[in-house]
Amino acid sequence: KGTEPEKIEIYTNYFELCSRPNWLLYQYHVDFDPMIESKALRIGLMRQHDQLFSNVKAFDGMTLFSLIKLDNEITELESVKQFDQKTVKIKIKLVGQISPGDKECMRLLNIFLKRCLTKSKFLEFGKERAYFDFDNLHELPKYHLKVAAGYKASIDVFQSRLLLCTEVAHKLMNMDTVWDVMERMYRECRPDEYKNACLNQLVGTTIMTSYNKKTYKIDDINWEQTPESTFDKRDGSKISFADYYYEHYKIKIRNMRQPLLVTMPKEKDKNRAKNASEKPRPILLVPELCVSTGTILLKKFEKDFAMKKDLDAVTKLNPQVRIDKLRKFLDKITRQPEARKDLENWQIEFSPDVVKTTATVQVPITVQFKNTTTTNTERGWNNAMKDGIHLSSIPLRDWVIFYMPRDEPKANMLMSELQNVSDPMGFRIDRGQMVKLPDSGRGSSSAILFSSAIKDTLKSSNIQMVVCVLPNTAKDVYDIIKQTCCVEVGVPSQCVTSNILNMNNMNKTKSAITKIAIQMNCKLGGEIWGVTIPLKNIMVVGMDFYKDSSKKNMSVAAFIASLNGTQENKLNCTKYFSRCHIQPKGEEFSSGLNVFMLDALNKYFERNNTYPDRIFIYRDGVSDGQFPMVQEFEIPQLKNAFKTINENYNPRMTFLVVKKRGNARFFLKGDRDDFTNPPIGTVIDSTVIKSPGEFYLISQSTNQGTVSPTHFHILEDTNELPPDRLQIITYRFTHMYYNWPGQIRVPAPVHYASKLAHLVGESLHRQHAPSLDDKLYYL
């Protein structure tokens, strides 16, 4: 490995539009009388007038673009609905002109792209707007599942070049219909439990209708209505559900006694109905025509590693397979006769192969323990962990293990082994108290027993840490222990499920207990390892959000800030200050940032007798469309906190938005012309970025599939560091997450914020006790 960053050539999943179209477009607004709710029907009605536009138009249901300028500013037409032969009046109004350089051009090009995909037999499906080929499904019959393969595709401007980004997508579907599932439950349940069992399993899940591939969320089951029930059509006549599906889709429903699924209209449907002066009605669906879809299907396979392996073989594509699929995808579009004709009419041509760019590979980072160092970090530093002494440890003298009677042998073993494995780490653990709880076979639940015992014990003892051996993974027990320890008494806690403490496989158990001991030192305020940070007097901040599971309309904002960082090229940013704030869900932009930053700065001063000169803030959970809100609402709060400290205090600040979920992928071409993943530490900051303040970082390797880069976007920067210096610092922070002896996808403070927000949103539902502000108690 060299001591200087290395330049390499990288292949991407982007295709270039070879030349910008050379046309002047006319934009029209289209109205229908009577109003037509169905977007597909509006498009179909306009299709009857293709000749008017010489077959060169793009219409999304409301806005129409064409190379043809109509004679009049307002053109009135009539179309006939084929299914009832009723006439619809159409008014087309010229509203503007668009050249290829206009922003509106991107919207048009993506409408046009969607049309080409539709003509190539791809169907848009799901929230992510991916396009799937439902005629070719991969079946996993052993698990009653099917996998649909598809693609995400969009056109945008990247540094004055028009590029098409393509990425492989997969959608999981049940082979059984919802009615098959309900029938199976009927056979397995007692008659008086059947309805509740169906409601518990189905309500809240996402389903797809087999006839038009639309998705809905099940809100209820209507046991009173069946396919023989009728509903009112818009013309006032009545029709049964069975007749409706036969009339529109030529589908004969087999079981006429099945109940109907209820789904409430989506927000856009409510708005549409409101405009039409009518109350939105629940949508009723036939179970026989619906299949479950989405990640909910994986819930019953959570511990089925064979299933996950089989699924990964289908969905986790290695770089060579992935790039081959993307090439075939574009080839299919450009060769399909109708799509090819459209491409020619609109003067659009794609490059035959993916775009290449230059990338930089960072020098390997040295990870330091108290007694050893390692630069062999590409696959993590688990080996160095085995002999490494923690940078600093907090002696654990007063602590307690709580356990149920049946787990007494395991609790004793845990006490002994924690002392054995911690000593080589330089982490002193004295023998703690052992508290055996009453048997929960009668009376109180396990959750109440643990909570009461913890509060009673801590009344009379100055305890540093609580350890609980849990009989199972029941969420209510875990939640109440965390609430008691983190909110009520303000003591770090460690929960261990008894099945991990397998006394018949001590090698595996010792490995698990070693990880537990490391977590315990972190939660007490210890430092495990460090990397040098090439700046002095710095603070690094991580921010993230999580919705509160117990309060439907609330979300948790988490804020993490480093407290040590006064010396250059030292092991800085290993101590943290943590805060969270619960706020209305609509407020995605934390309103408590001023207080968070002010408290963090004061804590930094208490520790170092100075305030930081440079602050780096990494913010997760922001979409591109929310950037203005962050700039107008969050960043000013941070600056206000600086002014509160001192009118003249103005630290240099860099505010970066972190995005883990993106469609960009990168590939390295090998000596044999095969594609592999780029090396760890690869940075891409040209060609496929939109502005100079962006870069992609590949900070992890993967054993299977294609590695996913993390995208960073600078929203504010007064540090004015050279781009490569900021990239190096960001890469170093990915080595600092103490729960994993290896690099992670984001800077450690961001992941700490995610862990804190998740714990508060899922278990605590309140702010933690102030005594835990300076501890990583949420690991």
TrEMBL record:
Gene3D superfamilies: 3.40.50.2300, paz domain (2.170.260.10), Ribonuclease H-like superfamily/Ribonuclease H (3.30.420.10). GO terms for cellular component: cytoplasm. GO terms for molecular function: RNA binding. One of its GO terms (biological process) is cell differentiation. CDD domains: PAZ_piwi_like, Piwi_piwi-like_Euk. InterPro entries: PAZ_dom, PAZ_dom_sf, Piwi, RNaseH-like_sf, RNaseH_sf. PROSITE patterns: PAZ, PIWI. The keyword Ribonucleoprotein does not apply. Its main location: cytoplasm. This is PIWI B2. It comes from Brachionus calyciflorus. The lineage of its organism: Eukaryota, Metazoa, Spiralia, Gnathifera, Rotifera.
